């Protein structure tokens, strides 16, 4: 049986701060948006604990609770929030065709991509178990909880250097775990960490295990040249080995950089395809904050509204 086709004005793909903010604006503008949540409803914030840097929450808020608030606010103005994963798109036709869960076919006048990015992880069992209990992939989000304490960070790119420097401002000591004898980061960022007396770089070092039952109490690392094993007494363990934008299904249509981040026309959320807009971490590898994602979500809804008005 051929799938049933639904026609929508604004289809929003993804349910992080960018997607829900786009939904709030699109719904209030009378565009009857439909939002598909994706496989992790609420996005990356649902795997963090306290969010203390989102304006408007003076006492902080738990990440999952904040995303519930976003969803309720979007639904209050009539957004249809649905659980489902977009599995295929065709942006070469107007209206744009989007398939959800390989079953539902949607024809959308405008599409707002807010599929976000996912942090890469080392893949250790202890890393998964202690995630949110001392293990984090975001120093800016969680560094504050380790004020005055000793922490470790894995990675040797610009993000790891930037986050190590950020942590050094807050923490007592930062071990930087680098798997090779050189860093990938730009020279200037490397110099910054090497010249910081609070940062100790452990070259040729890999993490065997993160230690602790209910919270991080240390990390066991091994030097991959000398095979020397050591335990670092740390209470925070940060992973900064890159992010992966969740943009794979759009790659045949949408212009992206080499890492898969969607290219938008500067100062807007417009992509190379008319009527398709991108916001949040799917197009931003630099700021990656809830509040910046929400800001670009608002921009995407306004861009979609103006686009639809220009077609009338
Ligand atoms: P990168 O891909 O540049 O670096 C990832 C780092 O993680 C590499 O050092 C890599 O090691 C290491 N790594 C990967 N997998 C593992 C693993 N399993 N175990 C241990 N280490 C691992 O990611 P970034 O997030 O740092 O940067 C992404 C992009 O964003 C870059 O283009 C960067 O320049 C840019 N950026 C720019 C900033 C700025 O200009 N202010 C700030 C932040 C990011 P190896 O080198 O051995 O492969």
UniProtKB/TrEMBL annotation:
Catalytic activity: [thioredoxin]-dithiol + NADP(+) = [thioredoxin]-disulfide + NADPH + H(+)
EC code: 1.8.1.9
Name this protein carries in UniProt: Thioredoxin reductase
Record's subunit section: Homodimer.
Family the UniProt entry places it in: Belongs to the class-II pyridine nucleotide-disulfide oxidoreductase family.
MF term (GO), any: thioredoxin-disulfide reductase (NADPH) activity
Cofactor: FAD
InterPro entries: FAD/NAD-bd_sf (IPR036188), FAD/NAD-binding_dom (IPR023753), Ferredoxin-NADP_redctase_2 (IPR050097), Thioredox_Rdtase (IPR005982)
Ranges for domain FAD/NAD(P)-binding: 9-297
Keywords noted in UniProt: FAD, Flavoprotein, Oxidoreductase, Redox-active center
GO biological process, one term: removal of superoxide radicals
Flavoprotein among keywords: yes
GO cellular component assignments: cytoplasm
């Amino acid at each position: 049986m051929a799938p049933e086709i639904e026609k929508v004005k604004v289809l929003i793909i993804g349910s992080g701060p960018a997607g829900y903010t786009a939904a709030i604006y699109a719904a209030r503008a009378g565009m009857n948006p439909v939002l598909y949540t994706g496989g992790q409803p609420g996005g990356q914030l649902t795997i963090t604990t306290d969010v203390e840097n989102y304006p408007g929450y003076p006492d902080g808020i738990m990440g999952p609770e904040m995303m519930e608030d976003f969803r309720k606010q979007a639904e209050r103005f009539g957004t249809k929030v649905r659980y489902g994963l977009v599995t295929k798109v065709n942006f070469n036709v107007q209206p744009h065709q989007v398939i959800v869960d390989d079953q539902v076919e949607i024809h959308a006048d405008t599409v707002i991509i807010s599929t976000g990015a996912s942090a890469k992880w080392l893949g250790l069992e202890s890393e998964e178990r202690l995630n949110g209990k001392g293990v984090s992939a975001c120093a800016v989000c969680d560094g504050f909880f380790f004020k005055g304490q000793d922490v470790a960070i894995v990675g040797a790119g610009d993000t790891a250097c930037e986050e190590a420097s950020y942590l050094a401002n807050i923490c007592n000591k930062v071990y930087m775990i680098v798997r090779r004898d050189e860093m990938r980061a730009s020279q200037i960022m490397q110099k910054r960490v090497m010249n910081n007396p609070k940062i100790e770089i452990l070259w040729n070092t890999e993490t065997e295990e993160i230690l602790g039952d209910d919270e991080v109490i240390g990390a066991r690392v091994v030097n991959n040249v000398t095979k020397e094993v050591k335990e670092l007494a740390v209470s925070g363990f940060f992973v900064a080995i890159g992010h992966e934008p969740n943009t794979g299904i759009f790659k045949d249509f949408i212009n992206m950089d080499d890492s898969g981040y969607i290219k938008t026309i500067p100062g807007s959320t417009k992509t190379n395809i008319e009527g398709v807009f991108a916001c949040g971490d799917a197009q931003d590898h630099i700021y990656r904050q809830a509040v910046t994602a929400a800001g670009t979500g608002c921009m995407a809804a306004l861009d979609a509204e103006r686009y639809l008005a220009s077609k009338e």
